[in-house]
Amino acid sequence: MFSFLVVLMSALQVVSCIDDSLLQCNSSCAVYDFKYFVDKLLQQERELSTYQSLTNCSAVALQAQIEAIEDLAFYPSLIYGGKKYLIAQLFFQTQSSRVAITRCGAFGGYLAEIDDTDEYAALKTFINNTPNVNMIMISGSDAATKGTWLFQRTGQPVPVIDWAPNEPNLVEEENCLYLWRDFDNLMMDDACEYIPFDTTFMCEIPI
Known about the structure:
Number of strands: 7
Structural class: alpha+beta
Helix content: 25-40%
Order of helices and strands: HHHHEEHEHEEEE
Shape: globular
CATH superfamily of the largest domain: Mannose-Binding Protein A, subunit A
Strand content: 15-25%
Largest sheet: 7 strands, mixed
Number of domains: 2
């Protein structure tokens, strides 16, 4: 757990905390918005090089701040099969799949990987119960070989493929996998770069 907190702290703008007995951060730890933390990612990776950066914060206080940031950035989660699933509240149009992968990684996870039909059914229900989302990026890319879908994290084949009508359309630059709420959360391929307007992403986090 402690090593995970170190990695996460390097990815988020989480700085010095007040007395451990209060278990809360001072004004320099204020949460402004998720974009602020993402913008600070590389800066924090450069600055946080040793465990000494955590000496003024208790693990409990840091965990509380992490959870507060999670609440800001994501809709309420789904717990299923020993994993936590999170759908980002902020659209990320004009950005890329790398942004989604980085943001999931900041919370100790990765783009959601659908491993079987039971998990797929659970995630479809999860999306239906989440407001204001339509196109949700999940793990899967055929950038290496068109029509061969692999998880970005592991390089393993995507075992569950369930295309929406007229999908995939095999447009050359549409190499990322999405769940499409307008079509019963079936799958579609679309761009990995310059993301469409009404797009968000789903993270999967081991717990």
